[in-house]
Amino acid sequence: MRVEVSRRRFLQNTVALSVVGGSALSLGALAAESAHAGSLPETTTTKTGTGSAEIIPTLCGMCVNKCAAFARVEEGVLTKLDPNPYFPKSRNMLCPRGNSGIQTLYDPDRLKYPLIRIGERGDGRYKRVTWEEAYDAILNGTDKFKGLAQILDEEKDNRATIGYSNGEGLSKEGFEVLVGQKIGTPNYVDEISICLETTLGGYVNTIGTYGEADMNNADYIIVAGANRAEAIITPDTMDMFKRTKKRGLTMIVLDPRFTNTAAKADRWYAVNPGTDLAFVLALTYVAFDEGLYDKEFCQKYMVGYAEYKAHILSKKYTPEWAAKLTGISAKEIYRTAREFMKARSPIYYQGRRSAFSPNDFQLRRAMAIYQGLSGNLDKKGGIIYGKKIKLPPEEVNAPMYAQAQTRFDRKGIAIPADKTGSWILFRNMILEGTAPYPVRVMLMRKHNPMSGVPDTTKTEQLLRKMDLNVMIDILPSDTAMFCDVILPEASYLERTSPVASFGGLEPAIVQRKAAVKPLYECKTPEVIYKELAEKLSEPLWKNTLKYDEDVQDDTKGMKPDALKKYYKENGFDLADAWEKTVEESNKERVVKAFGEEAWKILEEKGVYYPHMEAYHKQLDPNTYEYYPEDKKNYHVKGDKIKVVANFTNLTKKGVDAMPTWHDDMAFHVPKGKFRLITGRHAQFTQSGTTNNAMLRDLTPTNYVWINSRVAAERGIKFGDLVEVRSRIGAIRLQAYPTESIAPNQTFLLHGFGGNSRGMEMAYGNGGNDARIIEDHIEPVYGAAAMHLTDVEIRRV
Amino acid sequence: MARYGMALDYKNCINCKACEVACKEENGVLLGADKHRIWVGANAPSGEWPHLDIVSSTFMPSQCQHCEDAPCEEVCPTHATYYDENHVVRVNSDKCILCSYCMNACPYDARYVDDRTVTVDKCTFCSDTRLARGETTTACQNTCPTKVRTFGDLDDPESEISILLKTRDHFSLKSHLGTHPKLYYLT
Question: Minimal Cα–Cα distance from B112 to chain A, Å?
Fold first, then answer.
């Protein structure tokens, strides 16, 4: 194996994550210390060999989607990731991010050993320590910051003083078990309230599922506010684009921008941001007014069918009305409405993205009801409910803490999410001093709110306000730079993850196996949870004994042995959730549910579903069959299907029972300003992928899109540095004049503009949209509404 | 012995560039935006917002066309460029003197300089990686989310590519030049 010199090696001197106390170790030296024989490649590509190789099933971790892959490992080095043809969800494909996972694994900027802050928050000065020293610092603090023991003592065992957050992933549940259930705080915030909460909520509350769009059999699809060519979701992306362009699937795309998805459409409508609801209501109006819908289906399955019909017609949601709001002509709305209902298998695609406007919950409701009007639910070519293969649950012995208070981030919210909360409200209430008790700790894993949550300035204030911040991650993110203790985690390619079940039309269970051993001093998340739990368990138990009256009552007069028994039996032994390793637990669960043979298949192929050996076939070099046609779960609900058009209970919460347009939803941009819209790119996920050398070659930076005629008026040319300023902040990045965006709107890719010097490629590259997106929330869940910010753009 | 070619169902292409990354990782192509064996050509849509011409915005995956009459092979003074036993146009880096005649002669701009060997490099149809291991697909075909590509033996009438070319309309790039590319774009 040849280790190539890359241009990254020449850039290495600029790495500025200061490691004080430790010598400036090069990657090569660290590699020699790690478990690997031979040398490790730096950020480079390694040609695959023709000799022996281990082929290990893995599950991609470059985005949330979880595509199955096989890792090719030669002499201990991962040389290639190939798609896994056994997984029905990802259908033998890997996207550019999946392919470039190798660059994330071998990223020279990886966190390599535990770090303790010795400088001020944000200045990047850390000391290399042992794992034991890092755990000890979390418990007992240092001269720079307080530890958990002191903070919980001062807060009289109110566990809710700890906030915690985790990005999406297979080991996320374990972190929730550790911090939420075992340590015992309710204050969890994750990506859901800055992501698709309203989409899921809208659909589940209307048709009982988010569902799966059967792209292989639909013949007409409206894709509004979803960009499947660039925000890849499997199997939707692979299935739909094989049939667009007059090959069986008519595709209508609504997007303020001309995206790669729009390029594959039959028609593209440049809808005004935030007005999709008016479009759906107008489609619904035409359906009712012209009698173009499945009346039998609606009479049978639609709750509030008559009221909804009366509501839509009496409000006069005509295409003429919607044209003024959406910018789409009445003629085109009529055309689409009629085509949709006349199609054999039409789908109004659910999409999945952050809430863009405050009406997003009602938009999703209107979309789901409209789908119901077509009757194309729970059937081939429609939105299907599918099935999920059940895995035995894992029991957690969660202790009760009498002193732990409840969560508070629900002010003004109609349906607060108990488990996941509202990131923006949680943060802002702490900053405004309206939280009912002090939140003093943030325990974070694989989550970068400095980039993900709108208004970075406030997020930074939150982190500065804390007494203790801890991060578990693979790269020194912007958020990690405000943490007191940083724990280096094994990347997804270095760990076996808890087995997962993916439901749908063709359900399967999957297992990610470690392709290589953890590099450097990194540890797998479950090992970190266990060790941290072991460290914290007894000291925190003593704190509970000191303050918790319920526990004091229960344990009054107990002898040490009895007390120890009580501690164990009532779940106060924090580490008891990790008595088995992930590998042991996976095997136990799979064997229990499906037998030894299933486990063997899963171990070898990474995928298992009942009858897989008989069902799975290769049809041609590019096509596999996973289930025979008559075994696919097209139709599972029977008469239990329900479409809730009139959701009367919502009125009690101050939410419209039926989707309704309100005048304040109209789109308006002050003259000379631009509405900022955000989005994705096939070559990037989020801030976590911006340090990937391969992806950076494909998308070197994020540009700010400006309509080319407007740019010409202002003398702005491609590549010119411009300042984009909103009410809350300003960023600088390069201009990209284009006709793919409206004169009064602007767009930039999310995830760029990193501010951590430890991430060499991401640092200072482009602009961080979270610095300028205002922190508006929608009223149903308190989810971030991302498209309400107007900005000024000027050349600098 | 085979005569390898590739059919591209290019209308499936969403310009995600998975093929480009898979190619680089499989074949150890140098990092760097200007170093690639394969790529996707994209046209910005013509027209003014919101009246853009969707049809004008196409994605065209491209690479070495493995011409039957390859201009690059003709001009190479050292015979570094050659046809291998499977009719794949290859470069012998030991013979290459980087005169760059081939780079200028190639009508498809399919060649670039590998800075490690300081010689010309290009697509090999994964001959020395995947095919050498007995695999039957190229890295780009295997990874493609929308399954644009079908690689195979044009001399085998039963091969998937032969069947595709017999049953689907197709065209070649710059066919007027008489290079006889072995990449076929399906319509």
Answer: 16
Q: Confirm whether the ipTM is greater than 0.95.
A: yes
Q: Which positions in chain B touch A267 (Cβ < 8 Å)?
A: 54
Question: Hey, are the CB atoms on B28 and A48 less than 8 Å from each other?
Answer: yes
Does residue A167 contact residue A157 with C-beta atoms inside 8 Å? no
Distance CA A458, CA A565 (A): 45
CA distance from start to end of chain A: 48
Minimal C-alpha gap between B125 and chain A (Å) = 14
Determine the Cα–Cα distance for residues A507 and A527; give it in Å rounded to an integer: 30
What are the tens digits of pLDDT across the range A642-688?
999 999 999 999 999 999 999 999 999 999 999 999 998 899 988 98
Domain boundaries, chain A: 7-105, 115-191+416-578, 197-387, 665-795
Task: Give the C-alpha separation, A328 to A196, whole Å.
Answer: 26
Query: What rounded mean pLDDT belongs to chain A?
Result: 93
What's the alpha-carbon Rg for chain A, to the nearest Å?
A: 27
| Closest in A5, A49, A232 to B16, CB measured | A232
User: Cα–Cα distance between A775 and A728 in angstroms, integer?
Assistant: 9
Q: pLDDT by residue (tens digit) across A452-464? A: 999 999 999 999 9
Largest interatomic CA distance in chain B: 54
**Cβ density class A671-703: b for 16+ within 10 Å, e for less:** eebbbbbbbbbbbbbbbbbbbbbbbbbbbebbb
Please report, for residues A16, A17, A407, A686, the alpha-carbon distance to residue A476 in angstroms, rounded to integers and kept in the order given.
11, 8, 29, 14
What type of residue sits at position A627? Answer: Y
Dig out the tokens for A697 from the structure: 């070659």
- Break chain B down into helix, strand, coil percent, rounded to 5: 25, 25, 50
Give the gap in angstroms from C-alpha B68 to the nearest C-alpha of chain A. 24
**Listed residue (A60, A100, A45, A19) closest to A692, CA to CA:** A100
The domains of chain B, with CATH numbers, are 4-186 (3.30.70.20)
Please name the CATH architecture into which domain A115-191+416-578 falls. 3-Layer(aba) Sandwich (3.40)
Asked if the C-beta of B132 comes within 8 angstroms of chain A's C-beta atoms, the answer is: yes
φ, ψ (nearest 5 deg) of residue A304: 80, 25
- Which of B20, B25, B147 should we substitute to test contact with A (largest number of A Cβ atoms within 10 Å)? B25
The confidence score (pLDDT) of residue A42 equals 58
Q: Flag whether residue B1 sits within 8 Å of chain A, measured between CB atoms.
A: no
Residues of chain A found within 8 Å of residue B61, distances taken between Cβ atoms: none
> How many angstroms separate the first and last alpha carbons of chain B?
29
Q: Which CATH superfamily is domain A197-387 in?
A: Dimethylsulfoxide Reductase, domain 2 (3.40.228.10)
- pTM for the model: 0.94
Q: How far is CA A526 from CA A173, A532, A718, B128, in A?
A: 10, 10, 47, 40
Q: Which amino acid is at A529?
A: Y
Strands (E), A225-288: 250-254, 267-269
Partners of B151 on chain A (C-beta within 8 Å) are 621
Q: Do B18 and A743 touch (CB under 8 A)?
A: no
Domain A7-105: which CATH number of 2.40.50.140, 3.30.930.10, 3.20.20.70, 2.20.25.90: 2.20.25.90
Question: How far apart are the CA of A433 and the nearest CA of chain B, in angstroms?
Answer: 46
Query: Which numeric CATH code is attached to A665-795?
Result: 2.40.40.20
**Residue found by looking up tokens 């090569």 in the block:** A28
Statement: residue A7 has pLDDT above 60: no
Q: Could you give the C-alpha distances from A650 to A350, A362, A396, A784, in angstroms and in order?
A: 21, 11, 34, 20
Q: Which residues of A touch B112 (CB under 8 A)?
A: none
State the Cα–Cα distance between residues A769 and B78, nearest whole angstrom.
Answer: 53
Q: Report chain B residues whose CB lies below 8 A from the CB of A50.
A: 128-129, 132-133
